[in-house]
């Protein structure tokens, strides 16, 4: 997160496709802050207490597949489209 904080970019997107990745967005009682700052967006495959499972035989997991599909502009079945 220090790397992202030092970046001069106005907006930063941090993607964590890992187990327990959501812990970075938690409020820290000892410091009174969260790990993310203004202008940062955090996308995680799991909450602080969840595992992020891969597909069978080394295939990508659900989060990875949905992220790649979104980046490629693919629409998911049942997705809501903006009017």
- Give the structural class: alpha+beta
Quaternary state of the chains: single chain
What Rg is obtained from the alpha carbons, in whole angstroms?
A: 15 Å
What fraction of residues sit in β-strands? Answer: 15-25%
Secondary-structure element order, N to C = HEEEEH
For the largest sheet, list the strands in their spatial order.
1-4
In words, what does this structure look like?
The chain is of the alpha+beta class and 83 residues long. The chain has one domain. It has two helices and four strands, in the order αββββα. It has helices at 2-6, 62-71; strands spanning 12-16, 27-28, 33-34, 40-44. The strands form two sheets. A two-stranded parallel sheet has the order 1-4. Strands 2-3 form a two-stranded antiparallel sheet. Strand 2 and strand 3 form a beta hairpin. The radius of gyration is 15 Å and the shape is globular. The protein starts with a helix and ends in a 12-residue tail after the last helix.
């Amino acid at each position: 997160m220090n790397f992202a904080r030092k970046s001069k970019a106005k907006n930063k997107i941090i993607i964590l496709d890992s187990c327990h990745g959501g812990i970075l967005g938690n409020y820290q009682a000892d410091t009174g802050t969260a790990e993310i700052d203004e202008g940062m967006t955090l996308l995680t495959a799991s909450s602080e207490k969840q595992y992020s499972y891969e597909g069978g035989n080394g295939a990508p997991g659900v989060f990875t597949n949905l992220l790649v599909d979104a980046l490629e502009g693919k629409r998911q079945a049942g997705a809501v489209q903006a009017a």
